[in-house]
Amino acid sequence: MESYIQALDRYTDEQFLAKPAENEWSLGQMYEHILGANAYFFMANVKRCLEQRKGQVGGERSDAGENMFKYNSLPPVKIKVPESLRGPELVAHSREDYRKLFAQSLQQGVLLAEQVLQDEGMYKTLHPIMGWLNATEWYAATEIHARHHFRQQKEREQWLGIA
After folding, report:
1. Which pLDDT band holds residue 35 (cuts at 50, 70, 90)?
2. Which among 108, 127, 138, 149 could bridge 45 via Cys, Cβ 3.0 to 4.6 Å?
3. Are 144 and 71 in contact (CB under 8 A)?
């Protein structure tokens, strides 16, 4: 999260919103995706596991989930969000907004860390691709997902001529 916050200084407002193609995200849309995924998907499932709701005791990870944790990363390929999980086109906020919002997301993650460390790991919720994950696994997946977007960030920066 800190890397994304620091990177905001490298962009102009125009660069932050520029899209290389109609079907590709701007840096701002990528930031919106990461922030939304953290709050409404990853951290929401961490909380569900800790509160033992909307899941179950036990359950296995899928092969994709096993590989994500084995290699501590997502595959180095572009991943298309399934149509059934896609929402409306993402609308980016200002760079200043993301500076604050990413700092808040980071702080919320720090606050949850202690609870995650004390969790027994038996209660799990279902990730549509990775299978059944416990609070610790969801927490780790948050960082893995954010790191996965470093490749996309680098591609956009190259397209924009930012070295």
Report:
1. very high
2. 138
3. no
